[in-house]
Known about the structure:
There is one protein chain. The chain contains 15 helices and no strands. It has helices at about 1-25, 30-55, 70-85, 100-115, 120-130, 135-165, 175-210, 215-235, 240, 255-275, 285-290, 295-305, 310-325, 335-340, 350-360. By secondary structure, the protein is mainly α. The protein has 2 domains: about 1-240, Rhopdopsin 7-helix transmembrane proteins; about 255-365, Homeodomain-like (Arc Repressor Mutant, subunit A, Orthogonal Bundle).
Amino acid sequence: xxxxxxxxxxxxxxxxxxxxxxxxxxxxxxxxxxxxxxxxxxxxxxxxxxxxxxxxxxxxxxxxxxxxxxxxxxxxxxxxxxxxxxxxxxxxxxxxxxxxxxxxxxxxxxxxxxxxxxxxxxxxxxxxxxxxxxxxxxxxxxxxxxxxxxxxxxxxxxxxxxxxxxxxxxxxxxxxxxxxxxxxxxxxxxxxxxxxxxxxxxxxxxxxxxxxxxxxxxxxxxxxxxxxxxxxxxxxxxxxxxxxxxxxxxxxxxxxxxxxxxxxxxxxxxxxxxxxxxxxxxxxxxxxxxxxxxxxxxxxxxxxxxxxxxxxxxxxxxxxxxxxxxxxxxxxxxxxxxxxxxxxxxxxxxxxxxxxxxxxxxxxxxxxx
Length: 369
């Protein structure tokens, strides 16, 4: 009963994790597809054993054999997933399918057994559960090849990750390369643990010469742990599972020529026509959004074209607007501070400081008579 519950919970967790990765979208679709491809065989393995423990065995006993040989998938998938997470230049190529030839060969040679009738599979599963199913020499050889295959890819992945650490990969990405390296390293260690466990279990059943259901269930226990580990890391940092390569800070553009003039005209229109400076909540991010540039580039534009900081540029417009309004008849009923608030200042102290800075005088000199 405990094993049945464990299989069911892990399947549900795996399916939820896949749906979460798929539904939330990704800035790195290849990484998303590859991590899902790693999770799917683990789910299928748990479902295969769930079939043997429930009434499903009477309806789809053949499903027990579907996950056989899927260990051939883990090594290549981990390697390519690591590349997709860390290497900005990595793209899928058709030739990479060659890495999956061992699994395809296994699948094709096992097809006659997979297509066997329900009676055969029920007999096979009953023998397996009773601990009476002998291990053929072909199966022993296959187990050894699968273990060696995974070990080779784990070593290749580990060596590649170490080579990345020695190179300059520190583009200013939103998800740093160092965090990506730590993540794929942790996932690689998980599969090392998986391989050690599998090798130990294979050694046990080979000594006995027959399959032992408990050892196979422990195999699913380790794979279930990997699913939960991936889910845990996704909760901590959802972007880390399939991170994009968007940089925190884009390269500064040059505000010369037509492009520079275009953004300069947008800025002037916002200030002179729309009088956006009168918004007391105006900040660099809001102004940048209206212009259509990143904040740091708008700051550069103002500094390059006007020799001012953002705050000085905005406050000078507010001071000029204040001076133009102070002498208007319709504003005679307003106080100096009331007009200051109306032109965008949000405190008396900031108004006084800005006014003194740009005029060299105190605001009281412009008091309405």
